[in-house]
Amino acid sequence: MINDEYFLAALRLSSGNDPIPGQVSAAARDAYRLRVPRAVTAAYAESATIRSVRDDDSSHLVRFVAAGLTFDLEVTEGDGLIDVAGHISPYPGEGALVDVRSPHMTLTRRIGDTGHFVATGLPPGWLSIVCHRPGHAPIQTAWVRIRPCP
Amino acid sequence: MRDPREPAELLTAAADGDRSAWDELEHRFGPRMWAVARACGLGPADAADAVQGAWLRLLQHLHDLRDPARVGGWLATTVRREALLMLRKERLGASSFEIADDPDPAAAVLEADGRRTLWQSVSALHEPCRSLLQLVAIDLGNQQVAARLGLPTGSVGPTKARCLEKLRTLLSLQETAQ
């Protein structure tokens, strides 16, 4: 069954109306620099509940799991920017680093010996974490979209 | 000059670090991804996010798409899922996305060949369906379509649904005949 929405999309596309904006194409091409060769991708863990941890719905928990590592992220929105407080378990070891990435900026952080890290002031939008451990393939979380509450 | 490589080749090349292959994938599939996001009812800012999200997901699955030849369908399906998640306002629920290895069969109409067939099929419809769908394609609202075709405004929605049904039947018949 082909649904109407795809029909209409195809019709609009054929007509040349509403073309893709140049900056959307440019952003897609630019995304290639976010490729992490040989990385393992940590999927969103269905078993973990994404939940608001504050009454005003400004903070959320999200969990990813891959290759024996669990990423727990608390993402807080405020003043149009997002802060990430993360925990990787088990402790990924001496010399491990995380990149907290949005399409527009990457913040690199050393992981504390408790497995915690913090990154603040990221723009809202797509977010992914990459964990680099000496002697191992990098592990990246699937991208999540974080938008401030309307 | 256009890159003559097949989608599967482009995907492999992009996975191996060939930036030009990635650019070509965007060139081929970006416009239909935008069309899908807009067709789902997203405004320009959210549509841009949905398209960007699909590319970011592809970046993480360059090596493990089940059917690399259908990367275009995969991208269209992925945009659609992102768009529907946004529409459900599940802000962090977007992270529950699973790998969309099975392209939605509906995405076929957005492939280049499917689009040609679709447009030919629209032209083969009787009036008012032919004109109505051509007007819908350029995004005219129901009132304008009604004015152009001399129909009561209230009848445009139901007529559009009937016309899409006829188009669907016509395409099914063509598929059966092939």
Automatic annotation (TrEMBL), chain A:
Native source organism of the sequence: Nonomuraea fuscirosea
Entry protein name: Uncharacterized protein
Superkingdom of the organism of origin: Bacteria
TrEMBL record, chain B:
Limits of the RNA polymerase sigma-70 region domain: 28-91
MF terms in GO: DNA binding; sigma factor activity
Secretion signal span: none
GO biological process annotation, one example: DNA-templated transcription initiation
Keyword Kinase among UniProt keywords: no
Protein name: RNA polymerase sigma factor (Sigma-70 family)
InterPro entries cross-referenced by the UniProt entry: RNA_pol_sigma-70-like, RNA_pol_sigma-70_dom, RNA_pol_sigma70_r2, RNA_pol_sigma_r2, RNA_pol_sigma_r3/r4-like, WH-like_DNA-bd_sf
Family, similarity comment: Belongs to the sigma-70 factor family. ECF subfamily.
Keywords, comma-separated and alphabetical: DNA-binding, Sigma factor, Transcription, Transcription regulation
